[in-house]
Predict the structure.
Amino acid sequence: MKVRQLFKAAAVDYTVLAGREDGAPEVTSVTADSRRAGPGSLFVALPGTRVDGHDYLAAAVKQGCRVVLCKTGCRTPVGQGGEVLHLATADTRAAFGRLCAALRGFPAREMTMIGITGTNGKTTASYLLEELIRQSGGEPGVIGTVNYRYRHRVMPATHTTPDPESLQQLLREMADAGVSHVVMEVSSHALEQQRVAGIAFDVALFTNLSHEHLDYHGDMASYFAGKKRLFDHYLKPGGAAVVLDGRAEQDDAAGDVWNQRLIAELLPRVIPATASRRPQPGELRLWRCGARGAELRLLRRRLSLVGIEAELHSEAGEWQLRSTLVGDFNLDNLLGVAGVGLALGMSPETIAAALGGASPPPGRLERFSSGRGVEVLVDYAHTPDALGHVLKALRELTPGRLIVVFGCGGDRDQVKRPLMGQVAAGLADIVVLTSDNPRSEQPAAIMADIQRGLEGAGVRRGRLENLLKGERGEARKCRGYDLLVSRRQAIRDTIFHARLGDVVLVCGKGHETTQVIAGRCLMFDDRQEVREQLAVMTQAG
């Protein structure tokens, strides 16, 4: 595509710093990686937190690139004798996304786009939506934390939301393969870095917001602002915003403060669902899910370790939803997904049938029965809020002791570590601290940070075997924690010593199949460890 044609299609304004547009080669690729630049490529210099793309302009030219784009006000143009077309624009990040989309023919416009953002629940919602779309006759594609998948293709996920070059190529492949709906987990990093520029979503789902990624965003207000960009900048005119609005049975459910804030800030832009005029940019339709006055209201619920039963009310009247998912927070996920289904025009009957048959995603409160009265669940929860939600959900369903095995990742937000300890101390009977992904940090140092929260909450250390010796009736008497650096040993010893009626929660890694220790990526799967230990115990009788 000719340079002028590409920038016009992408609606990107630019100025020429050096070179001639007429003499520039046609653009066959757009990249922000100088190593991928070459003849026919347009290299976009992006500012970064660690490196600055402007420092690699010369490297891109050396690779054979003859068209480069930098931020307005950048340094002296590169190249000699005008052989390089050097362009400048005000916002290179937005330009990068739109140029990648334009070069691929804006593939997102050929499919229904569903974006999911929030701290917790995105992956579970993506799996549920995938099943809902498939059961309603659509052909889903999913871009998320676990992997990228469509039809019979499954690719490992490099990021929750890929970079624009990879993202637009993936969307083009999906559109060409006949995908009708794309379900995309949209991270706060991706929104801040404008990786989804060039995409307009038909529906955007907001799950919740809690303490996470503050090492990147700085504070919760900035984190919220990053998430809200999905609704402010990337929702189609008249698109649907679906927001959880409390989930308690009582009509006065307060809901999450950040969800309430989002609803309040969206309300001035809401147009009625029955409006017949063409929506204007910025206008949207709102689907609140949960509390009194919501478009999808929860009337009653019944929870157990085998699933969820809920009675709901929408414009179509009252209807029932049953699911094998476990826990109150999964009721949130079901409500949000049901809201998306209604926003897409699906009937309650279709939604209930699809969600009733949907299995939990891998490593998202995935349940393993021991056959001897001990339930083991594996979950990805790795934030204070997520851990709290899971433990609260299991607390009310556990007949015996609630035992949690978890750690925190190294080289990440250290502030949350004692908070995780406090949450575990308040909700679990026995806590087993172990390694997560220590990365370059010492596991003992990470566990010491978590210990501060446990000790501050009045929980004391004891030997795991002794802590777990208590019988069912002594569940709340023998409380405490222990430390086992080996995650394998922690999982296996905990399951081995658990008793009838106990629930063991293995938290933090979920679907992950590796563990990063001292720079080495080792094979490790919590689910496989659980399966093997249960198999050993079954064989032993």
In short: The domain at 3-101 is CATH 3.40.1390.10 (Udp-n-acetylmuramoylalanyl-d-glutamate--2,6- Diaminopimelate Ligase; Chain: A, domain 1). Residues 189 and 216 are 8 Å apart (CA to CA).
